[in-house]
Design brief:
This protein has a 7-stranded mixed beta sheet with strand order 3-2-1-7-4-5-6. It is built from 6 helices and 7 strands; from the N terminus they run E-E-E-H-H-E-E-E-H-E-H-H-H. The protein is globular. By secondary structure, the chain is an alpha+beta fold.
Length: about 170
């Protein structure tokens, strides 16, 4: 039986006030459910550049990855955040290579940075959602829940999203 996935989009990048680490917030397409994933500063910058379509003088890593895919006519069909072990998320790139699906392991931050560049959909596996609920980090209803993530998201200001501009 194939696992169910929830399609998400990048809601934005915020800073965890306790750890001062960047957090990419993924939200379902209705904006009601959110999943935060703690990432590094460089990964936050890469995702932010991709969201803003920033072009650098020389290609950065994820831009280079996109150029390689384009050159070899490989399509990133989708990204799936497929596992949560301990506090670590795992992802897979689902590539279409000459009509065949190939799946490549990836860090979620790299997968997201590439997905925003090529406009590929991002999904989260149902098992990851369940595991993140158990850890208390999945916000199932952003409007009704009164939790720390909701507070961080609700208090976002436009300048918070620009924090990682290059």
């Amino acid at each position: 039986m194939e696992e169910q996935w929830l399609e998400v989009k990048v809601m934005g990048i915020v800073v965890d006030p306790k750890a001062s680490n960047p957090v990419v917030v993924l939200a379902d397409l209705s904006g009601q459910k959110a999943l935060p994933i703690w990432i590094g500063v460089f990964e936050a910058e890469a995702i932010s550049r991709g969201l803003q379509d920033v072009v650098t003088l020389r290609p950065m890593t994820h831009d280079l990855m996109k150029q390689i895919l384009d050159t070899f006519q490989v399509n990133l069909h989708r990204v799936v955040i497929n596992e949560l072990r301990g506090n670590t998320f795992y992802a897979k790139l689902h590539l279409n290579v000459d009509g065949n699906e190939m799946i490549v392991d990836s860090r979620p931050s790299d997968a997201i940075a590439l997905a925003v560049r090529v406009r590929a959909p991002i999904f989260v596996a149902a098992s990851v959602i369940e595991a993140s609920k158990e850890l208390g980090i999945f916000a199932a209803n952003l409007i009704e829940e009164n939790d720390e993530l909701k507070s961080i998201i609700e208090n976002l200001k436009p300048e918070d999203f620009g924090k990682y501009k290059m």
